[in-house]
Amino acid sequence: MAISDLHVAYPENREIVEKLRPESDSDWLLVPGDVGEFVADVEWALGLLKERFATVVWAPGNHELWTPKDDPVKLRGEARYRHLVEICRGLGVLTPEDPYAVWEGPGGPVTIAPLFVLYDYTFRPPNTTKEEAMAWAHETGVVCTDEFLLHPDPYPSRDAWCRARLRETRARLDARDPAIPTVLVNHFPLVRQPTDILRYPQFAQWCGTVETADWHLKYNAATVVYGHLHIPRTTWYDGVRFQEVSLGYPRERRMYGRDDSPPLREVFPSEDAT
Ligand SMILES: [Fe+2]
Ligand SMILES: [Fe+2]
């Protein structure tokens, strides 16, 4: 099962999280990011889910990497990420820093690979520079809050942090057992096409990196699970199923009439929602 973008700072979302239950004692839960912004909120939600699901797998979203001014945890960038990884280890929740677990249940074996690769602004319009795309975003007032709250320390920029993460993640994926297919779990879409339907195309530059465009093929993905866009749906690229599993904000669910959609999605071996 999977669900992302829980955004538990919203009381309505917190209530939904409190009601999440597995369908069986053997269900695993994939949580690809945007659980919340405050470290205590992330710990609360993942701890609750770990009590209920046999295995919980987390990958960070951009929101966990913010340093909100009201959070008593003042850590920034890489140090904040490592702190969250340590909290997950205390809870028994798997992260991109742990050995990849292998699902041996129905449809298995598959290697469950939580990824943290961030974004590098390369989902900007073709034939534009990063500076031009950023200027367009500022002129039109569509600037991701990451620019103010997601600090890349100790890297000089978010794109430099992304490049480091790409290197580390490729090494981890290359070292896995190539005979076993993967379930790739990443906050951001690994391919660019899901961003084509964004209401504000300016936002795409904060949504991924072209460097992962062939990972679903290269790493033999049985399915790819992601969030961030708050557009829950299933699409196929090169014959591989990509599933956006976000809960999103209460106002979005009201706007798009999503209240009745099942909050948890079965993502492997089959799916029960599109
Ligand atoms: Fe989100
Ligand atoms: Fe996000």
UniProtKB/TrEMBL annotation:
It comes from Sphaerisporangium album. Residues 253-274 are annotated as: Disordered. It holds the Pfam family Metallophos. This is Metallophosphoesterase. GO terms for molecular function: hydrolase activity. Residues 2-232 form the Calcineurin-like phosphoesterase domain. InterPro entries: Calcineurin-like_PHP, Metallo-depent_PP-like, Pantetheine_PDE. Gene3D superfamilies: 3.60.21.10. Residues 253-263 have a biased composition (Basic and acidic residues).
